[in-house]
Amino acid sequence: MERPSVITKLQGGLIVSCQYQPGDGIAGPEMMAAMARAAALGGAVGIRANGPDDIAAIRATVDLPIIGIEKQILPDFGLRITPSFEAARGLVEAGADIVALDATLRPRPGDLDAATLIRRVRQELGVPVMADISTFEEGMAAAEAGADLVATTLSGYTPYSPQLLTPDFDLVARLSSAIVGTPVVSEGRIATPREAVRMLELGAYAVVVGSMVNRPKWITQHFVAALHARSAEHRALAVDIGGTKIAAGVVSDGRVARYRQIPTQAGGGWAGGSGADPPAAGGAVPGDGGRTTVSGGDIGCRAG
């Protein structure tokens, strides 16, 4: 069976998820449309977007395939992605080319199972369906129900799926090998280009990346946290000004990271120097008569 052209356009490429979280500082249809425009200029092959308003704004801005979702927080069910036929219809009316929906085994309102919703969207709305799943079994079931794409979006976001900090490489590999005729899309916690490439190597048809592309506040926080951790390292500086030389050392994390000895004119020469091996914790800086010692990550100085 020949795939719709809107799906073949995605093959081997990057789909950028243009969404925001409360408190991100970037929100609203205009912002999401600007992000989509930037993604298109960067070479993205598709956009994933949340809600009719954002989708309509993006549709007016780019001509890339749009994968539409409707995130809803439902009483007694929590967060669900496009949980009803009515939600799917609103996405298509706003301009979505593909509808993504929750195809997990979790209960949903009205006892509507994923297979029924997949078939209704495809038949009555006439658009392809991306099934967002969290496990191998869910992926196989979604493909059997007729989903046009199976995406690993919800791996780690259901209580019974692996709670990973890294992408679910294993799930992508297993589904890509087991499913015949239905493309597998990798989505979830992909943080580097190398991880995206690895997903294609494992058989993914396309890769979706969100936070690492379109959440400046979140990205900034990660850099700031790393820099603060670096700045918080325990360091100490000691200087020994003696009659024959000047010695200085820097200790970081319990070891001498750097030291140097410079002879004074009265010394007539010097021992050790910057080329010698640094002293270990608990030892003395060579050639200074024991005035500068390293103990427990600090340098102590004695009068010269």
Walk me through the structure:
There is one protein chain. The protein is of the alpha/beta class. It is 32% helix and 24% strand. The chain has ten helices and 15 strands. The protein has an eight-stranded parallel beta barrel with strand order 1-2-3-6-7-8-9-10, surrounded by seven helices. It has a three-stranded antiparallel sheet with strand order 11-12-13, with no helix packed on it. Helix 5 packs parallel to helix 6. The longest helix is centred in the last third of the chain and has 16 residues.
List descriptors:
single chain; 304 residues; alpha/beta; TIM Barrel; 2 domains; elongated; disordered C terminus
